[in-house]
Amino acid sequence: MSAEHVLETRGLVKEFRGFVAVDHVDLQVRRGHIHALIGPNGAGKTTVFNLLTKFLTPTRGTILFNGTDITAERPAQIARRGIVRSFQISAVFPHLTALENVRVALQRKLGTSFHFWKSPKTLDRLDARADELLDAVGLAQYRDTVTVEMPYGRKRALEIATTLALEPELMLLDEPTQGMGHEDVDRVAELIRRVAEGRTILMVEHNLSVVSRLADRITVLARGATLAEGDYASVSQDPRVLEAYIGKAVDDTAGAHA
Fold it and tell me: Cα–Cα distance between 98 and 162 in angstroms, integer?
C-alpha cells in the first residue's frame, strides 16, 4: 500500500444469505482528497461504509488503514484510529445546545464522556475549543440554541462540528446533503470544502452537483461492484455510468457544469 493512501480495500465482499451486496470492491482513498462513492439506489454504497466502520463484518477481503490491516477490528478500535463517520440521519442530541453537543464530543476525546456526576463547571475548559469548532462550521450565532430548534441544514453542520471535535484523520460522510433544500445544500457543500483542508474525506452522496464541485476522485458502484473510477469529467461521460443512472441524472448535471 502506498503511503499516499489513507484507506484501501482489497477484494471486499459482503454476502447476505447468498445475496452479494458488495462484490470484490477495491478502493483506494488518497490522503488529503475528497473521494466520493456514488451509484444508483441499491448499489452497495452504505454497505461499504458499514464494512469500513465495522458495523458489518466482511465476508471476504481486506481493509487497510495507513497500511495496517483493520479487517478484524471492532468499531471502537476503528474510531480510536481516527476513522469517524456521520450518518444519513442527523445524530446530534436534540435537547442540548449546540455548544453542549460539541462539548460532549470533546469529552469523548478526553476519555471523560460518562463523568456526568461532575459539576458542569469542570467542562468550562472545553468551551474555547467548542466555540472554535462552532465558528469553523458557521454556527457561532447558534452557540446557545437548543438543537431541536435549529434548521435542518444547521443540524448537519453541527454534526460535522462534533465529528471534527474527535480530530479524525478520515471522515466518512454518509449522504451529508440528503433531504436539504437548495440553500442548505450549497451551505453544507461549502462547509465540507472548508473542513476538508488538511483532512481526508470519503463521502457517499446522491447529489451529483455536489459531487462535481467537491470530489477529487469518484468511485461508481452498481450492483455492489465497482463500475467506474476517476475524476468527475471522465466518470460523467462513461457510457456504463450513464446507463446505470438511466442517463438523465448524469446528463443533466454534466450539462449544468459544461
Answer: 9
Q: Note the residue count of the chain.
A: 258
Digit-coded pLDDT (tens) for 7-59: 999 999 999 988 999 999 999 999 999 999 999 888 999 999 999 998 999 99
C-alpha cell at 23: 462484490
DSSP for 104-126, please give it.
HHHHHHHT-TT-TTS-GGGGGGG
Residue 63 in 3-state DSSP? strand
pLDDT tens digits for 198-252? Answer: 899 999 998 999 999 999 999 999 999 999 999 999 998 888 888 887 554 444 5
CB atoms under 10 Å from CB of 115, counted, come to 12
The helix-helix angle for 182-195 and 152-165 (nearest 10°) equals 10
Count Cβ atoms within 10 A of the Cβ of residue 116 and give its class: 0-12 exposed, 13-18 middle, 19 or more buried: exposed
Helices (H) and strands (E) counted in the chain, each on its own, are 10, 10
pTM over 0.70: yes
Which of 162, 190, 216 is CA-nearest to residue 5?
216
Residue 188 CB-density burial (10 A; 0-12 exposed, 13-18 middle, 19+ buried): buried
Domains of the chain: 1-82+170-258 (3.40.50.300), 92-167 (no CATH)
Centre a 10 Å sphere on the Cβ of residue 132 and count the other Cβ atoms it contains.
Answer: 14
Residue 75 C-alpha cell reads as 468499531
